[in-house]
Automatic annotation (TrEMBL):
EC number: 2.5.1.141
Membrane topology, from the record: Multi-pass membrane protein
A Pfam family reported for this protein in Swiss-Prot or TrEMBL: UbiA
Name of the protein in question: Protoheme IX farnesyltransferase
Pathway(s) the chain acts in: Porphyrin-containing compound metabolism; heme O biosynthesis; heme O from protoheme: step 1/1
Origin species: Geothrix limicola
Gene3D superfamilies for the chain: UbiA prenyltransferase (1.10.357.140)
Length: 297
């Protein structure tokens, strides 16, 4: 049990549930799935609701499983010591039960309301995150590179739930952009919280390379994220000029905002600012894909 569990009063059950399932983060992945769904249909219908519900339930279940898996390590880091299990609001068994119910419910919603392909892709995302990426973080500072498949899967789930084929070049291009985006997103988080990760026994690129080299590497991957967006018009994910301009301006803004990573003396406020930038860029990217069919009418 962490220090937080000894000092903090118990939270309201609803608050505990939302913390355990990381609703904000789970909702973000659900939003990217909407991009895949709308990109395939070139519009939206009532099936979008069940798609988003299924993915949200799976994402929340996966997040809860992650907190069960890492609760002992979470208790050692200031950033995570006040999560529900270290705080003592839930036992690992209780949290695992909630996670299982959420994950199974999400799988069934996708399967019964849509198709087996989208449900299996959702299950793959959960297995990859909890069965592969989570334990790999304890072993390698580069775990996020293969682990970024998790960020690529929600758009593909949305695409297939709408009736598309998982191997369609258009959805592969969209998924690839989110795959690349995930890497600098996580490395900026490492730059912010490296000491806490290392105290809990996680290898980090700060410990391996030092902060200046991590910053340069993160900048390079950020530029790669911006460049990868050029695949979306090429593979007809975006076909309207307003959406292309919106995404292009967002990509330029992202690179310009990341340039301070190349200067000496990086500090926490810089990492936090660039981290917010790359999250906002993901929002711009997703919005451009969602709005494109409406711009092109």
């Amino acid at each position: 049990m962490s220090v937080a569990a000894l000092s903090a009063p118990k939270s309201h059950p609803v608050s505990t549930f939302l913390e355990l399932t990381k609703l904000r983060i789970s909702g973000a992945s659900t939003f990217t799935a909407a991009a895949g769904y709308i990109a395939y249909l070139r519009g939206a219908n009532a099936g979008l609701i069940t798609t988003l519900l299924g993915i949200l339930l799976l994402a929340m279940g996966s997040s809860a499983f992650n907190e069960v898996q890492e609760h002992k390590f979470d208790a050692q880091m200031p950033r995570t010591a006040n999560r529900p299990i270290p705080r003592g609001d839930l036992s690992p068994a209780q949290a695992a039960l909630i996670a299982g119910v959420m994950a199974v419910s999400g799988f069934l919603v996708l399967w019964l309301a849509h198709n087996l392909t989208s449900a299996l892709l959702g299950a793959l995302a959960l297995v990859w995150y909890n069965g592969f990426y989570t334990p790999l973080k304890r072993v390698s500072a580069f775990a996020v590179v293969p682990g970024s498949l998790i960020g690529a899967l929600p758009p593909a789930i949305g695409w297939t739930a709408a009736g598309g084929h998982a191997a369609d070049p258009s959805v592969l291009a969209l998924a690839f952009v989110f795959f690349i985006w995930q890497v600098p997103h996580f490395w900026l988080l490492v730059g912010l919280h490296a000491e806490g990760y290392e105290e809990a026994g996680y290898p980090t690129l700060v410990g391996l390379f030092g902060r200046p080299r991590l910053s340069r590497l993160t900048f390079t991957w950020t530029c790669g994220t911006a460049a990868a967006c050029g695949l979306l018009p090429l593979f007809h994910v975006l076909v309207s000029k307003p959406a292309e301009i919106m995404l292009g301006l967002g990509a330029v803004w992202l690179i310009l905002g990341s340039l301070p990573l190349l200067k000496p003396g990086q500090d926490a406020p810089l990492y936090r600012r660039v981290f917010m930038n790359i999250n906002l860029f993901a929002l711009v990217l997703t919005a451009a894909v969602i709005l494109d069919p409406f711009f092109s009418r």
